[in-house]
Amino acid sequence: MKFISTRNKNAILKSSEGILQGISKEGGLFVPCTFPEIKDFESLLNKNYREIALLIMGSFFPELGVDYLKESIDMAYDTKFDNKDIVALINIDGINFLELYHGPTLAFKDMALSILPYLIKGAKKVGNINEEIVILTATSGDTGKAALEGFANVEGVKIIVFYPEDGVSEVQKRQMITQEGDNTFVVGVRGNFDDAQSGVKRMFNNRNFSKRLEENNYILSSANSINIGRLIPQIVYYYYAYITMLKRKELKKEEKINIVVPTGNFGNILAAYYAKQMGLPVNKLICASNENNVLTEFLKDGIYDKRRDLALTSSPSMDILISSNLERLLYHLSGEDDNLIDKKMNQLNNKGYYEMNNLDIGDFYGNYAEEEEVSQGIEYLFKNNGYLIDPHTAVGYNVYEKYKLETKDKTKTIIASTASPFKFGSKVASSIGIDINGKDEFTILEELSQKSNIPIPSNIQSLKNKAIIHKNTANKEEMEDMVKKFLDIGDKDD
Questions:
Q1: Which of 456, 453, 399 is nearest to 425 (CA)?
Q2: How far, rounded to the nearest angstrom, does the alpha carbon of residue 404 sit from its chain's CA centroid?
Q3: Is 381 exposed, middle or buried (0-12, 13-18, 19+ CB in 10 A)?
Q4: What is the pLDDT of residues 292-347, one digit of tens each?
Q5: Helices 326-333 and 267-278, interaxial angle, to 10°?
Q6: What does each C-alpha distance from 439 to 281, 446, 447 come to in angstroms?
Q7: Catalytic amino acids?
Q8: What is the chain's alpha carbon radius of gyration, rounded to the nearest angstrom?
């Protein structure tokens, strides 16, 4: 399998090279040159999550070898997931909530970041790479902890995570700053997620910086969904959900489904789009945004405009104005026009907007939910069904209700439930009638547990007494200096 850059058709890499490099040298993202066809669902009916993962990842990453991938998948998706099936598909009032938060950090990012360290180690071996890998990642909340958890104490790897200091939940922050591991480094950026993400991209595109790393025996890579090794594993759970619905007789053979994805960076819904390209019977991909609704506007009028204030919401993992993975979709829909994509992405960077007309985006529907609607969604599902969801999932639920009202579409539907409600205790608790005034986060979580009759996940409960290890903060202009400091590679003239 070969991968090609969205901004340069001459940049074609083998899968192992794409996994290690993360982002193309001119700033483009790697996409598959072709999509494998996987649509013999009869043969998948008896396969578990790990077996489906092997089939899909093996189709995209054949260089790594079936035996290595099988061993890696078995180790990645093991008892650190608190559900024997790895994910759960819960039917509430005819809607299937795909719970993707049963991993160690209680968010959907675990589904890909548990396997990514193994993919990188395998790619290193295939490429005969001896240099140390530096994982450089920006996070809006969940990627950071999941990446830290996955790469902590992995030999031959260092991981550096930047997060918006005041733009994540208290639990998300505590998960990161208490992370153990000699190879881990966490920095709170004084700014928003887009500042952190843009700073990371600048480092990837800085030739002098890359050269300095190489001189010190380091190679730069990423754990964000800009890395194809992070994106491909996300395809697996959409196939698994469909197969589960077939097993339960909820679907007829080849019956189409809708997939609702709460998203800010577009990666999780792009994985569903890739699944459709591979043969998964998908009717509509429903892109759910919070009040930072740049994606909604783009899907409706073809104009992507980030020239607005970032709203800090109760769904911080979606507080994003630059949806990096949208670039991959635009490449596919534009007839693989790398020159056009390069032009539009440069325009976004320089002017803050771009316009793309005449694209066939009929696969997608976009809408958004406001904060009050998020609270109402959480309250409604708990009051009427005893089912507790987090604010991100509530965004998805609200947008799906708007979609039904607007279209009258009765296609069976999956909503990607992306995080545990206990990661966002204050919002969830207040939504179901708990008074949170003057209470610390852990007191709120205890009351939420009592009212919902759901135990606080042990991985969150343990945070209360964990020592804070990472106390680093920086302005966005200082991010590169922080990396140099951690790696001890100050410039020669420093």
A1: 456
A2: 26
A3: buried
A4: 999 999 999 999 999 999 999 999 989 999 999 999 999 999 999 999 999 999 99
A5: 40
A6: 47, 11, 10
A7: 109
A8: 21
Q: What is the reported pTM?
A: 0.94
Dist. CA 14–CA 36, nearest whole Å? 15
Look at the block and give the residue holding tokens 């205890």: 446
- Which residue type does 413 have? T
Classify residue 38 by its DSSP letter: -
The tens digit of pLDDT for each residue in 240-256 reads 999 999 999 999 999 99
| Fold exhibited by the domain 231-463 | Rossmann fold (3.40.50)
Q: Which residue has the tokens 């009212």?
A: 451
pLDDT of residue 205: 86
**How far apart, in whole angstroms, are the C-alpha atoms of residue 376 and residue 395?**
10
Residue 37, classed as helix, strand or coil, is coil
Sign of the dihedral through C-alpha 288, 5, 13, 226 = negative
Least confident of 11-15, 379-383, 489-493: 489-493
- Structure tokens of 460? 């969150």
State how far the Cα of 418 lies from the Cα of 395, in Å rounded to an integer: 11
With a cut of 70, say whether residue 491 has pLDDT above it.
no
Label each residue of 334-379 as H, E or C.
Answer: CCCCHHHHHHHHHHHHHHCEEECCCCCCCCEEEEECCHHHHHHHHH
The H helix count followed by the E strand count for the chain is 22, 16
Residue 292 has what DSSP assignment? -
Q: Which residue has the tokens 């990396």?
A: 483
